[in-house]
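Consider what follows.

. . .
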Amino acid sequence: MMIEIRLDDQARQLPAGTTLAALLESLDRPAASVATALNGSFIPRERRAATVLGAGDQVLLFKPIVGG
């Protein structure tokens, strides 16, 4: 079964059960090169493998910000 999500405001079809980590892997995006938000909430790198995407989810990828 396939689901549709929005990735950076573009529709994308994924197999049901896809995790955020698997999505990044399919995009050839190294984990450290991108920060992630799901439905407006930041998802830390260590939670991506346990974050299963659902139909209608909105995923945003952006450059991590480091500073202090």
The mean pLDDT is 94.
